[in-house]
Amino acid sequence: MSVSQDLKEFSLFRDLTPEELARVAELAVLRQYRRGETIFIEGTPREAVYFLLRGLIKVVKVDEEGREHIVAVLGKGQMFPHVGFFQDLPYPGTASAMEPTSVYAISTRSFDALLRRHPPIALKLLRVLADRIVQLQAKLQELAVYDSRERVVAFLRHFAEEQGRAGPEGVHVHLPITHAEIAQMVGLRRESVNRIWNQLRREGVIEGERDTWVIHLDRLQ
């Protein structure tokens, strides 16, 4: 596929004319990362906006005591980071590849100019950011009121809905993430995630092993 065809898969660019899409494609640089390779580091100057073509990215923040917290896991079709447009802000977290990953990078200056030239793209970006705010609000509510099992179930549901592929026997997900990393995301101890995960397997809610799972959303409670 051409760069223009790749970019058309992103909702932000889906309604552009072929000529407009070609101009955006001229700005996009394909970058590839190995598993564990860093894409950008928290606090460094924001140089580019990234569009995830394939693979998985995790975004981590470090608290005042030096502890890492995974704040997002991003998959195909998503853009990141979600902050700093028209502002000289640094990267809000550290992003790294969870598996071999390909992204298109557009420099911050070029992307800001693109938004000014194409108001429909800017409007779509506002919708993306609004959806992100809703997701963050939901996550805060889950951390505040959900018990341990409900937090793990919510994680599985969100991941399946965002990254899963529906089939007759359930939703297939590629999930190269450890129980320790899930624990970071949902505010639990790794041992608690292990226990709940095994319980969900016994109940037939999730099936599979290693990185490949089938999630039965109709059985999630």
TrEMBL record:
Q: What is a GO molecular function of this protein?
A: DNA binding
Start and end of every HTH crp-type domain? 146-221
Domain (Cyclic nucleotide-binding): residue spans on this chain: 12-132
Q: Which residues cross the membrane?
A: none
A Pfam family this chain is assigned to? cNMP_binding
InterPro entries named in the record: cNMP-bd_dom, cNMP-bd_dom_sf, Env_Response_Regulators, HTH_CRP, RmlC-like_jellyroll, WH-like_DNA-bd_sf, WH_DNA-bd_sf
Superkingdom, natural source: Bacteria
In the UniProt record, which is one GO cellular component term?
Answer: cytosol
Which N-terminal stretch is annotated as signal sequence? none
Q: Which UniProt keywords apply?
A: Activator, DNA-binding, Transcription, Transcription regulation
The protein's matches in PROSITE patterns, at most eight in alphabetical order, are given as: CNMP_BINDING_3, HTH_CRP_2
According to UniProt, the name of this protein is Transcriptional regulator
